[in-house]
Amino acid sequence: MGRTIGITTAAEDIATGLVEGHQLVGDLRVYEQDPDAELLLSMPPAGIAQCFAHEIQTVAAGQSVDAIGIGLPGIINGGFIEESPNLRQLKGAHMQELVSQALRELGITAPVYVFNDADVLAAGLAATHGHLDRFIRVWTLGTGIGFGVYPRREGVWEGGHVVVSLDPRERYCGCGGVGHLEGIMGQRAMRLRFLDMEPDEVFENALKRDPRCVEFVKLWHRALAAAAANSIHLAGPGKFFISGFNARHLDLNLLHQYLNEMVKMTPLQSYGFEVVPASDENAVIGAAVSAAQSAAA
C-alpha cells in the first residue's frame, strides 16, 4: 500500500496524519477543543463525520490516498457502532458510511474503515516497535479503560469491562455494570469514588501513607493484574503495552507481584509489560496501518 490516512479521537481532541511505510509523513494535525465545551459529546454522528472529513481533507492536501482508517471508542462491527459508552450518541450509527459520504462530497473516494480506538493503538505500537509479526495487547488507562489487540481477532474484546470484583458495591463503571475493571481504574470512576479529591491526589496521598488511599492503590493494581491474568489464561502469555494518561501511576513491581499470585501454570508465565507514553502519533499510525491491511485483504 502507498499513502494512507489515520484519524483517532477522544472526547477532547481529533488527531489526523498521513502515513507511509508505518511512519508519519509531515506533522500530526491535532484539532483540540475547549476542554470545558466537550464538543464531540454533544455533536450528532453526521456532524462528527463532517468534522472528520474536513480534517482528512486538510491532511490529504489534494494528494490521493489509498485508504483511510478511523479509531473510535466502542464496540464496532463493519463500521457500525454497536455500543459507545464514551460517545453515547454514536450507538447505532454507521460511521463508516457517514464518513465515506462526507468525503465523497469533498471529492475523496478512498475506502474508509472504522476500528476500535484501542485496537488501532495496538496496531500502531506493533508497527512502531517491530511487532507486526506477533500477538500483542495494550491497556489504555484514561477516562475509561481500553483494551486493544493486534492482530485483530474475532470477538468483542471490551477488556475494560471484564469483571474483576464480586463486591456488589462496585458500581462505578460508566456502562452501569457491577465489578468492572473500568469501575476501579477509570478516571471517571475514581472521581465518583473519591468525591473529596482528584485521582492524582489519591495517588499522591497514598505515597504519604493515607490508609484509604493506600488501600485503593493496592486495589487499583490488583484489578489490572486480575484483568491481565484473565487475558493470559484465555489467550496465552505475551507482551502487554500500557498507555494512557494514568499509566504514570503504575508500579510495575506491584503489578508483577499481584500477577505472580494469579498466574501459576508454567507455560503461561512468559508475559511482559512495557509502559509507553500516551501518543496520538501511535494511534494515528495504527489506524492507517489497519486501514492499509484491510484494503489489501
What does this structure look like?
By secondary structure, the protein is of the alpha/beta class. The protein has 10 helices and 12 strands. It has helices at residues 39-42, 45-60, 95-104, 117-128, 182-185, 187-193, 199-207, 211-235, 252-262, 280-296; strands at residues 4-9, 13-20, 23-24, 29-32, 67-72, 75-77, 80-83, 112-116, 136-141, 145-150, 239-243, 272-275. The strands form 3 sheets. Strands 1, 2, 3, 4, 5 and 8 form a 6-stranded mixed β-sheet that branches. Strands 10-9-11-12 form a 4-stranded mixed β-sheet, with helices on one face. A two-stranded antiparallel ribbon has the order 6-7. A hairpin with a 2-residue loop joins β2 (13-20) and β3. α7 crosses α8. The longest helix is centred in the C-terminal third of the chain and has 25 residues, at 211-235. The model has no long low-confidence stretch (mean pLDDT 93).
List keywords for this structure.
4-stranded mixed sheet; 20% strand; single chain; 6-stranded mixed sheet; 297 residues; alpha/beta
List the helices and strands and how they pair.
Blueprint: E1 4-9, E2 13-20, E3 23-24, E4 29-32, H1 39-42, H2 45-60, E5 67-72, E6 75-77, E7 80-83, H3 95-104, E8 112-116, H4 117-128, E9 136-141, E10 145-150, H5 182-185, H6 187-193, H7 199-207, H8 211-235, E11 239-243, H9 252-262, E12 272-275, H10 280-296
Parallel strand pairs: 1-5, 5-8, 9-11, 11-12
Antiparallel strand pairs: 1-2, 2-3, 2-4, 6-7, 9-10
Helix pairs in contact: 2-3, 4-10, 7-8, 8-9
